[in-house]
Write a structure and sequence with these properties.
The strands form four sheets. A ten-stranded antiparallel β-sheet has the order 1-2-6-7-8-9-15-14-13-12, with helices on one face. Strands 19-20-21-22-28-27-26-25 form an eight-stranded antiparallel β-sheet. Strands 5-4-3-10-11 form a five-stranded mixed β-sheet, covered by helices on one side. By secondary structure, the chain is of the alpha+beta class. This is (rape) hypothetical protein.
């Protein structure tokens, strides 16, 4: 249970306070990782992941405050505060990723670094203790105005208050380390900051706090993926390159962007009464359904009769909205303009950071807004306003008295696009309410649905299944498509034809089985015996590989160039010694090095002798040609053992 309140110009969300025996001040020890994070929280984590960690351990995080600037959520950080543990999590308001961890009450938080602990009520984090635990570092910065000395490590900083009578020791920012006053005392840490160490910035309190930034996302990350919106046409996901048009079927959606996080039936349609183009009886009953993609920040609404995508809902996940933390922020971009050059101008783009006044500058004025409210009990944040344009509607939260609002939800509707085709091109106030109403009225498409893959030759692609699909999956795909396109005979014939071809092909394969070489090789590679052998080998560093190769190449050259009547006894002895040496360099264990080295020598000599006797004819002439060839083959196997065996 959570309750919400406002403190000054900021809003807070806090749990109902409850004190458990296991959550006493300082009783929980958090692992400190400089430049990475503390406990389960790491720099760069999305705010939704942080809430997930909190929900997983409610006994530890039993009092949580969420603070944000309610007049402009993009201006200041979103802060999750743990007053019982004395630290903040500061999230960048735009990307909603953790950029800074502030420990403002070190006496409340016990931290573990390596095998040592620091902080908490029992272990004071003094300057001497910090310096002894984290080691030498460069001189810090003394802030005369605040009377605080900051000590910096990569991704970590400590602030120490300096009493007025001892400010002389910090003259011109220089101080002897570790810092001790003339009376033998040492200052105690008043604040600790953890931040991304890759930026090479010194981050502390005050102005230095703004230097903390979020680390870059990993290549290919779907978080905050840029989604290009073509009004009335489609969505384009830039990372994966997927296109999601209006009219897409559920199978198309699964194929392009994967399985939804949830499927929610739309039981009632409360806006259908406003739909001017819907001639059906006005009823709230509805068979439509949503595909919810919470981890990507959007929903897709499908028509219950045609099973086609007719509406997209993109969420910005701003605090102060009832759906905050239900979705990850969707980083959409709407380009408005006829030509590509005009569309790419900065003034013609609408993104999650575009406020309502800027939206009206791009799209023009619109009519009055529809008001959405759920009452103060269900939604303590107040009402939102829905403004409609052609092909798009905006849900806007009024964060300030001058309506300088921020877009909260963007809605795209295929039905709105079709409803507005017959409208005159001149915009007036009488048309705008109709456009807005049509965007929320779920008007069914009475036209006969045509199977979009009717001309695809491959029967598997036509049904939208893989070649490894089972008979149940094949039959299920056929039944689903038959129900969806039953009103169009050519579509039905195409679906039936593809189904029959696949069934006949499966029957033929069972009657005339073929050996699948690729499958057999894959089965052998996945067997336990082969996996056990492969696990015994590991690719070393390039420098080590070159060193072993040169060593055995020199031994091979000596064996060929300087044969003796007794055979290459000395060279073989040197190869055994080299094998022991190189294996020990990698394993660092004498017993296993001796065991692996002896086994490698015996195995390589037996294999070399066998190959020379049974397989390879000796092509080196001379009285000791057989021994020389056997030695060369043994050197190759010993090199493999020395370099790759683990």
């Amino acid at each position: 249970m959570k309750d919400y309140s406002k403190i000054g110009g900021k809003s807070t969300m806090q749990r109902t306070s409850r004190r458990l025996e296991g959550t006493a001040m300082g009783s929980t020890v958090f692992d400190l990782k400089p430049g990475v994070g503390i406990g389960p929280f790491y720099i760069g984590m999305p705010i939704c992941d942080a809430f997930g960690k909190i929900e997983q351990d409610p006994n530890v995080y039993d009092v949580v405050h969420v603070k944000y600037y309610d007049e402009d959520p993009l201006k200041l950080d979103v802060v999750i505060s743990f007053p019982d543990h004395g630290f903040h999590l500061r999230f960048d308001p735009s990307s909603q990723r953790l950029r800074l961890i502030e420990i403002y009450d070190v006496k409340r938080l016990q931290m573990r670094y390596g095998n040592s602990t620091i902080g908490g009520p029992s272990t004071l984090a003094t300057f001497v203790a910090v310096y002894a635990l984290f080691g030498p570092t460069f001189p810090g910065i003394y802030d005369k105005e605040r009377g605080v000395y900051a000590l910096f490590y990569p991704g970590l900083s400590f602030e120490f208050p300096i009493p007025d009578q001892y400010t002389d020791c910090c003259h011109d920012g220089e101080v002897a380390l570790p810092l001790e006053f003339s009376d033998g005392t040492t200052p105690v840490t008043c604040r600790v900051s953890i931040y991304d160490k890759s930026s090479d910035k010194k981050v502390g309190v005050g102005k230095l706090m703004d230097r903390a930034s979020v680390p870059p996302l990993a290549p290919g990350s779907l978080y905050m993926e840029e989604v290009h919106v073509k009004l009335g046409k489609e969505l384009y996901f830039t990372v994966g390159g997927q296109h999601m048009p209006f009219g897409a079927s559920p199978q198309d959606v699964w194929t392009e962007i994967g399985r939804p996080c949830g499927i929610h039936p739309k039981q009632v349609d409360q806006m259908v009464i406003h739909s001017a183009s819907d001639l059906r009886p006005k009823t709230t009953l509805c068979g439509d359904y949503f595909y919810n993609y919470f981890t990507r920040g959007f929903d897709i609404l499908f028509d219950g009769e045609t099973h086609k995508a007719k509406k997209f809902v993109l969420h910005t996940n701003y605090p102060g909205h009832a759906d905050f933390n239900s979705y990850i922020k969707c980083n959409f971009m709407i380009s408005v303009g006829e030509g590509e050059t005009e569309a790419n101008r900065g003034g013609n783009k609408i993104t999650p950071s575009t406020n309502w006044e800027q939206v009206k500058e791009v799209l023009g004025e619109c009519g009055p807004a529809a008001i959405q409210t759920q009452g103060s009990t269900s939604n303590p944040f107040g009402s939102t306003y829905v403004y409609g344009y052609k092909d798009v509607a905006f849900e806007v939260k009024d964060f300030s008295s001058n309506l300088n609002s921020v877009i909260v939800i963007l809605v795209l509707s295929l039905m709105l696009h079709r409803a507005c085709l017959a409208l005159p091109t001149q915009r007036n106030n009488a048309m705008i309410p109709r456009a807005m109403s049509s965007s929320f009225g779920d008007v069914a498409d009475d036209s006969t649905a045509v199977f979009p893959r009717i001309n695809v030759k491959d029967p598997y692609k036509r049904l939208g299944i893989s070649r490894m699909a089972s008979e149940d999956e094949i039959q299920g795909a056929r039944n689903f498509l038959m129900q969806q396109y039953s009103g169009h005979k050519p579509s039905v014939d195409a679906i039936e034809s593809a189904h029959d071809k696949i069934i006949m092909q499966k029957f033929h394969e069972r009657k005339n089985p073929k050996i699948d070489i690729t499958k057999k090789v894959r089965e052998v590679r996945q067997s336990k015996a082969v996996n056990f052998v492969f696990e015994r080998f590991q690719t070393p560093a390039t420098a080590f590989l070159v060193k072993t190769a040169v060593t055995f190449a020199v031994l091979g050259a000596l064996t060929v160039l300087f044969p003796t009547e007794e055979g290459p006894t000395l060279q073989v002895l040197l190869s055994v010694i080299a094998t022991f040496y190189f294996i020990h360099q990698r394993l660092k264990k004498k017993f296993w090095s001796f065991l692996y080295g002896s086994g490698s020598f015996i195995f390589s000599w037996l294999i070399g002798t066998f190959l020379m006797v049974s397989v390879i004819p000796p092509f080196i002439k001379g009285p000791r040609g057989f021994e020389v060839m056997s030695s060369l083959l043994s050197y190759v196997l010993l090199w493999v053992s020395s370099s790759y065996l683990r």
